Protein: Fe2OG dioxygenase domain-containing protein
Amino acid sequence: MKSMDRSQERKAFEEMKTGVKGLVDSGITEIPAMFRAPPTILASMKASQASHHQQMKIPTIDLKGGSVHYKNQDLMTRRNVVEQTREAAEKWGFFRVTNHGISLELQERMLGGVRGFHEQASQVKKQFYSRDHSRSFFYYTNIDLFQSDSASWRDTIACYTAPDPPRSQDLPAVFGEVMLEYSKEVMSLGELIFELLSEALGLSPNHLKEMDCAKSLMMTGQYYPPCPQPDLTLGITKHSDFSFLTVLLQDNIGGLQVLHDQAWIDIPPVPGSFVINIGDLLQFITNDRFISAEHRVIAHGSSNARVSVPCFFTTFKKANPRVYRPIKELLSEDNPPKYRDCSISEFADIFSSKDITIPRLLQLRI
Structure:
């Protein structure tokens, strides 16, 4: 009976098509039962607040002006950046980049556009509400709404912007143009980081790009409304990303945490910077050389909503028959392949059929 009640509650929430923002606008003072995290999760949240590990910080890498200047750097500078990237990808799976070449003005317009979409009238937003990944642009709440133990306190917009950008007329008027402009800049930044990662593996700079790791981009805009009981839920539950690489822009509210050495570490916002993380697909093809770290977002009681823009280098749920396997140049007798061959579409099916808190890579182990 309980599971039926839970299913009905989520179905009713879905049919409203107004997301978590709609609950907040209705004036609720207590969160619905479906959003209440299990006791073990709540305990980990309390433990992280008291942990001395919070003094730790993810690595920061100065990209020395971004892709425009990268190829003109002297050899020693380039080697230092590659070495910093290697260490961050192997030990953390997360790092921050500065001096990347994307203007603060464009970052702020992008964040403002995401906020503007989520804060417009519900009737305008509803026309975009869908879970159909064949659409140019769509809006929904909780990608794992019907699979997870508890729902998370956030709404999402999503758009596949590469390799086939949508037409501007298919995007919301409130920020369609800035999405396309921002996507081009993120693609350029992503290509630079893939070059650094390729060299960090001892491969040619174009190796990962030639494997199409930088070909496809899914842009999302996350909106975390103020929560009346932030200690009882999460903005997004613990997960790793189904991508080769993720480029994250976040506003000034904070709440992102990464699991490092069995402890939750805060990743506070730093204006103008981006947070980069390795995804499951890159851990897979590097045979665990680089790590796809689990992370989460804490709910907040701030008076303003938290906004972030994660951009995923992946085709995600779009059909993609390409088969990947661990890169042969990285393998040896002492380092045999740890994973079986897998198509991106099969990987997507694994993602869709399981709770996102279950590590997907375990299912591909040889």
Observations:
- The radius of gyration is 20 Å.
- The first strand starts at residue 60 and ends at 62.
- The mean pLDDT is 92.
- DSSP finds eleven helices and 14 strands in the chain.
